[in-house]
Design brief:
This protein is mostly helical. The protein has one domain. Helix content is about 75%, strand content about 0%.
Length: about 220
């Protein structure tokens, strides 16, 4: 039985698929920012932080484009959002871990843990207090990526090769970070490996999604 010929990917279709996905995620990000306030749940904070990281990964995939300077303002605003939400997310995770651990500690030893949880909750409330104001400021600064006016007939031809180069570079960085951690294990190197692996995973997902929807 003859082997099936491998289907080639239309680079222009992959580019269109990518730009549609970026515009969709950016639209979701803009809508979700409006919902941020002092009562935002752990789930909302986590979801929006992850979405901001994914949008940043997609914007980074456009770094090879001649018109990349048009992305700087958007990229800066999305990065500010990630940085705004990251410490709040860290407090949420720490508080949840302590809350889950509380029931496993003998009753006579729970008071210090309760005090720590109370202190973390105060920090959570304080960190969330300015969310509504900060989110309005960020939303005003968040300009959509003008991909609908990205008039460049060669964009599709450049996109996949550039994305694959970034993918290979991200994989190398993740592998190097893992070697560094294995060579001298500590929390800092573990964190560096987690970040590198996450960036590689986001690029893998971007690549797979662009190809899948281009078929």
């Amino acid at each position: 039985m003859p082997l099936k010929k491998k289907k080639s990917t239309d680079p222009d279709a992959a580019w269109r698929s990518f730009t549609r996905q970026l515009q969709k995620k950016f639209s979701n990000l803009s809508k979700d920012i409006r919902k941020l306030d002092s009562k935002s749940s752990r789930g909302t904070i986590h979801r929006l932080r992850v979405l901001s990281r994914r949008v940043r990964a997609m914007l980074a995939a456009l770094k090879a484009e001649p018109q990349k300077n048009r992305l700087k303002s958007t990229e800066k605003s999305v990065k500010k959002l990630t940085r705004l939400l990251s410490p709040i997310r860290s407090l949420d995770v720490s508080a949840k871990l302590l809350e889950d651990h509380l029931s496993k500690v003998p009753a006579s030893e729970r008071r210090p843990l309760r005090d720590a949880i109370s202190a973390l909750r105060r920090q959570q409330r304080k960190a969330r207090r300015g969310l509504a104001k900060d989110s309005r400021r960020l939303q005003a600064a968040l300009k959509p990526v003008p991909l609908d006016r990205w008039e460049d007939p060669d964009a599709g031809r450049r996109f996949l090769p550039a994305l694959r180069r970034r993918l290979r570079a991200a994989r190398s960085r993740a592998a190097r970070a893992l070697r560094d951690y294995r060579g001298a294990p500590d929390m800092h190197r573990l964190h560096e490996f987690r970040i590198a692996l996450k960036k590689y995973r986001y690029l893998l997902e971007i690549h797979a999604e662009a190809l899948r929807r281009a078929e």
